[in-house]
Amino acid sequence: MRLEEDSNIDRNRSNQQNRRNTKNVNKDIIKSDGTELSPILGYSEEPLLPLAQACAPMNDIFYNLSFYVQLALKETPEQPPDGLSIDENAVIRLYSTLNFNLKNNDRQALLPFH
Predict the structure, then answer these.
(1) Which of 5, 10, 18, 72 sits between 20 and 30 A of 36, alpha carbons compared?
(2) Where are the alpha helices (DSSP H) in the chain?
(3) For residues 68 and 51, is the Cβ–Cβ distance under 8 A?
């Protein structure tokens, strides 16, 4: 699939950016009950997976997730203008769709996400 091939090209660049971005978030977090959560370390060293592969473990949790993943990939330009990879752009598209529907007063709009 051409989209997967294109997204592989940008994966190394994205991994490097991800490592830089995580330096600012790896601080101890204090929960509301006063307990301290240690930072989550090592995730920025993990290779980025193609979106479909990264979402595969959630296919049993979210109804028809693979359809929405393919739709998000299809709707993403081959060269996203924001400097992100196709997969990164599609993830934002998926998140934005879910977030929009969560904020929508029409609760029926959430049915596809059950």
Answers:
(1) 18
(2) 2-9, 11-22, 51-55, 65-75, 86-103
(3) no
